Amino acid sequence: MAPAPVSVRHSVLTPSLTNRTLLRAFLLTAVAFFAAHPARCSLTLDDSILIAPSQLSNGSPFLITVSLPNPALSVTGNWQSHQISFFPNSDRHTWYALAGVDVELTPGNYPLTIEADLKDKTHQTLHQQLTIETAPYLQVPLTVPDKFVQPDPKSLRQIAADKIVKDKAFATSAAKPLWTGNFLPPLRLAPQSDSFGNQRLFNGKVASVHRGLDYHAKLHTPVAAINSGRVVLARPLYFEGGCVIIDHGLGLMSVYMHLSKIEVSAGRRVRRGQIIALSGASGRATGPHLHLGVRWQGSYLDPAKLYEIQLPTTTPLRAR
Ligand SMILES: [Zn+2]
């Protein structure tokens, strides 16, 4: 197995004694490295990376499929400073990861880098440039009770305590996918309302980006888990009202808000389609509805776009 060539740009190194010494030390180190690590390192810019959907905008979730010539021991990626962990199919030639474009990312071109350690002790680095287009998000004025726009000191203490609880729930995610197959809407019949990504003006004062999808749902409509996972939070919060958070593994979580009744508890495993709660109007809500958020490593993604991605089946999870 031939070591990768080591190239040195001589124009950078002037032939002073110090630089000649440095150059010799560098070459000796490089030779020693490749003698000790007889791995072939290659740089690939081909079509071994497949991104679905092919068009991305801010708020898009996406599936990365990596096809390798040989089985791999591990595959990792880097995207927007996020570390991406891939999982394999049975032959370990094909690896998958779900990732996303933050709703507030400025559209443009951004690099995706993937590193693969193959079973034959070779290493591959794959590169792809992802183009992020502008999603057509709107500005929407809304009216809610003043206590949600200018909370009093007691409410501010509650909001601060809620943040600690949520940060803890978001802090750890399973090291493997807990989901299997496509994600499904939490309410099959209720229509989606306020679009994901809209800029919202609460009482004309506070602007925020809507980081989820709202469903018109009558009070007490059964709410289903959008995929399998483990419940990491199930309790009332100030803004969110009755809230459930499900970890789907590898940094992906779904968040259900304004619930009137919660039917699961933290720590419990749930199946895709399992009823986890009843919808309501609790917390900062303009009326009865379900708010669904999809969060990947701190970035909020459009749930409607997640349903459209054809996903591989992973090991199914049994509910307890
Ligand atoms: Zn909402």
From TrEMBL:
What sequence ranges are listed for the domain M23ase beta-sheet core?
Answer: 209-303
The record's section on Gene3D superfamilies has:
Glucose Permease (Domain IIA) (2.70.70.10), Peptidoglycan hydrolase domains (2.60.40.1590)
Instruction: Tell me which UniProt keywords the record has, alphabetically.
Output: Hydrolase
Q: InterPro entries, from UniProt?
A: Cell_wall_metabolism_enzyme, Dup_hybrid_motif, M23ase_b-sheet_dom
A Pfam family per the record: Peptidase_M23
Q: From which residue to which does the signal peptide run?
A: none
Extract one GO molecular function annotation from the record.
Answer: metalloendopeptidase activity
Return the SUPFAM superfamilies for the record.
Duplicated hybrid motif
Q: Which domain of life is it from?
A: Bacteria
Q: Which stretches are annotated as coiled coil? A: none
On whether Hydrolase is a keyword of this UniProt record, the answer is yes
PANTHER family (UniProt xref): MUREIN HYDROLASE ACTIVATOR ENVC, PEPTIDASE-RELATED
Query: Could you identify this protein by its name?
Result: Murein DD-endopeptidase MepM/ murein hydrolase activator NlpD
Organism placement in taxonomy:
Bacteria, Pseudomonadati, Acidobacteriota, Terriglobia, Terriglobales
